[in-house]
Amino acid sequence: MAECRQWEQITDGQFIISKPIRKLLWIQSRGVFLIAENNNKIIGTTGNTTQPWRKSHIGEFGIAIRNGYRGIGLGSYLTNEIIKLAKKELKPKPKIIRLSVSPDNKPAIGLYRKLGFKKVAAIPKQIQYKGKLLNEIIMLLDMTRTIT
User: Fold this and answer.
1) 49-66 pLDDT, tens per residue?
2) Is 21 inside any structural domain?
3) What is the pTM of this model?
């Protein structure tokens, strides 16, 4: 898979949000990604990908925010933007957005709830972190009920 090197930049206040203009064929049909930069340093990334066949209606969401940039609204902004982008670009459009999160990541869980995600499962010992096995919380956003 070749690397995409062209980027469109959208400025939102103090952040530069970059998104690919030209995507690879796989990315074009199965995933969308955003990168947030500040002073030429990546401070956040997010993506939403779908699987083929019987799970093509589910968008798998992921996000990472660099320490020092958490708690200032960047996660909320990137999450909203990637969901909008997924609805616009992915074929087929996702009907459900799925994510997994560690139960000790309370700020993220609060954000996801605020954005309409619902906890549907806790799977034991799925995340290995600092030598410990933690539960994995699965949360879903029903896109058939969201208005945007």
Assistant:
1) 988 889 889 999 999 999
2) yes
3) 0.80
